[in-house]
Amino acid sequence: MSSDVLPSRTFAPSVAQSSSATAAEIASRIERLPICSWHVKVRLVIGVATFFDAFDALTIAQVLPVLAPMWKLSGAQIGFLISVGYLGQLLGALFFGWLAERIGRVRAIALCIATFGSMSIACALAWDYESLLVFRTIQGFGLGGEVPIAAVYISEITRAKGRGRFVLLYELIFSVGVVAAGVLGYWLVPTLGWQAMFLLGASPLVLIWFLLRHVPESPRWLASHGRLAEADATLAGIEEATRTATGQPLPPAVVTESKAPQKPSWRDLFGPLYLRRTIVVWFIWFGSYIVYYGIGTWLPTLYRTVFHLPLEQSLRYGLISNAIGFVGATLCALTIDHVGRRAWFALALAGSAVFLGILWLNGATTPQDVLIYGSGAYFFATSAAIGVYLYTPELYPTRVRAIGVSTATAWLRLASMAGPTIVGTMIAYGLGSVFLTFGLVALLAAVVVGTFAIETKGRILEEVSP
After folding, report:
1. I need a labelling partner for 394 at 20 to 30 A (CA). Which of 72, 242, 370, 406 fits?
2. pLDDT per residue as tens, the chain (466 positions)
3. Residue 262: HSE in the Cβ half-sphere, 13 Å Cα cutoff
């Protein structure tokens, strides 16, 4: 990508510049910006990192059918190897969420990329189970931070009108990365070896310079930290890029009243206004991702070890489920602005519970049953899993948005650890018990969402979360 795609001079703020702009004016100027090619280009740059975040996270599912027999791994060892990467992601989400509130969204994303990209190379050099365990944990530290901070950044530069579609079409890149991991794993692992997947996963390291040089910091974040001159100058550059892209003058900004800047506080997550939101969104994260990762990471290995299918067929079945999940994610991206957040999450979680219940009732005795009904559950879980990246940033004010999203994604990581571990531990008691457990969790989350979630469709961030 050439350097003139997002010319850095457009966004170079002068720290010495004085400005009479207020945080409310910054927000109102963002809200008047039509979504244009500038937004798409920024979304593409950030999206490359998100693509490889997903690719690296799911690479383990593609290499385990080879490593499990080669290193003679037990079911518990496989489950732990999957789960330990998510432990790193949990810690990384919390740490980088805290860091993003202090050094900015863009620099925090760059540090995440440096961490998971370099550790992907280390994973390719792993010589045994223990070494891969260590490298995957450290890699997870970077993987856990990038996606939530990127979601916050994309939400903060996007106006309320059409935000759901725009943000989720960006988040769809994560699902593309998941499918790509399946497609490339199906081809690379049998031909070039399992190490090739990890080496390919280090590709985003080349993105770091471009990201720091050409992607502007979030004006909302700058304004929330009292850096109004920088926010004004950065946003002026974005406005100029938007006028150039559209060929039209910008509409006048309509400034709404806003409260005086407040210091971040845990009350922003657990106070009277936000406690219900926090609990609801945590249920969505846990309920959708225990299915998403529990099924997504284990299916190829289940086909191989429980049903004794050939390696290529096991990977192909896993790829089919990934592709069906991608369809669910795409449907969510295209329709959630019409259906609404609350209805979508309730229906998606309930749909996942229904398919998992069918698997429990029929005993999951054939690989075809697991493929059909497991893919159905994965379809709905994936649609909820992508949608919650849109919904969570909408629920918190700018001053703690990164912390709020990163703390919520900690439940994603807990679910990601619990899901594979449940499969590895309970598989001896039959697959039906595994699917029943997942289904009950998804059903509980659906009830909580349907009862307590608030609707944020079409509302300005500062209006939803003062």
Report:
1. 242
2. 333 445 444 444 444 444 567 888 888 888 888 888 888 888 888 888 888 877 877 788 788 888 888 888 887 788 788 778 778 888 898 899 889 988 999 999 999 999 999 999 999 999 998 999 999 889 888 888 888 898 889 889 888 888 888 888 877 887 778 778 878 888 888 888 888 888 988 888 988 988 888 899 999 999 888 888 999 999 999 999 889 888 888 877 676 665 555 666 666 788 888 899 999 999 999 999 888 877 777 777 778 877 888 877 887 888 888 889 889 989 998 999 899 999 999 999 999 999 999 988 887 788 888 889 989 999 999 999 989 988 999 998 888 888 888 888 888 878 877 766 677 676 667 777 788 888 999 999 999 999 999 999 888 887 877 7
3. 13
Question: What are the tokens at 394?
Answer: 């909408």
Tokens of 169: 């079409």
| The one-letter amino acid at 80 | F
In 125-265, alpha helices (H): 129-156, 163-192, 195-200, 208-214, 219-224, 228-246
Options 3.40.50.300, 3.40.630.30, 3.60.21.10, 1.20.1250.20; which CATH number does 22-249+266-459 get?
A: 1.20.1250.20
Residue ranges covered by each domain of the chain: 22-249+266-459
Q: Residue 415 and residue 436: Cα distance in Å, rounded?
A: 15
| pTM (predicted TM-score) | 0.76
C-alpha 331/C-alpha 13 separation (Å) is 39
Size of the chain in residues: 466
Structure tokens at 411: 């439940």
Q: How far apart are the C-alpha atoms of 400 and 68, rounded to whole Å? A: 42
Distances (CA, A) of 123 to 105, 110, 188: 27, 20, 16
DSSP string for residues in 271-306? STTTHHHHHHHHHHHHHHHHHHHHHHHHHHHHHHHT
- Compute the distance between CA of residue 84 and CA of residue 298 in angstroms, rounded to an integer: 14
How far is 410 from 400, CA to CA, in rounded Å?
15
Cβ–Cβ under 8 Å, residues 156 and 390: no
**Amino acid of residue 120:** S
